[in-house]
């Protein structure tokens, strides 16, 4: 599983990690029953603190995407539901729009102009 973070992104790192895992589940890179690498290994690969990765994993567990099993690690519980994936993509869009100087209201106006 290849995850990348954008250190120029204003979002907290745990949200970026959760978003990357959520996208990997949604696009089928990792599927139901697949085990994730240990949090420490993910943290080392990303160059961040293990507690940051654990916070992201707990968030995804609370969404029902991951299962924690003592002695067996963390595995994917199911596919990302459409709403969770859409929320992540909209969040990414708003972050990109901010980088170009657009506000949330500007993005909404653009969406309302679409057919």
Automatic annotation (TrEMBL):
It holds the Pfam family GntR. The keyword DNA-binding applies. InterPro entries: HTH_trans_reg/aminotransferase, Tscrpt_reg_HTH_GntR, WH-like_DNA-bd_sf, WH_DNA-bd_sf. Keywords: DNA-binding, Pyridoxal phosphate, Transcription, Transcription regulation. Residues 11-79 form the HTH gntR-type domain. The keyword Signal does not apply. It comes from the Bacteria. PANTHER family: HTH-TYPE TRANSCRIPTIONAL REGULATORY PROTEIN GABR (PTHR46577:SF1). This is GntR family transcriptional regulator. It comes from Nonomuraea typhae.
């Amino acid at each position: 599983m290849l995850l990348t973070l954008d250190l120029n992104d204003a979002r907290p790192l745990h949200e970026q990690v959760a978003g990357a895992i959520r996208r990997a589940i949604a696009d089928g890179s990792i599927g139901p029953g697949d085990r994730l690498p240990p949090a420490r290994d993910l943290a080392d690969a990303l160059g961040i603190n293990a507690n940051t990765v654990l916070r992201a994993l707990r968030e995804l567990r609370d969404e029902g995407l991951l299962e924690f099993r003592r002695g067996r690690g963390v595995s994917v519980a199911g596919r990302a539901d459409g709403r969770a994936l859409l929320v992540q993509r909209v969040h990414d869009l708003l972050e990109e729009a901010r980088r170009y100087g657009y506000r949330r209201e500007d993005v909404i106006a653009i969406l309302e102009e679409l057919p």
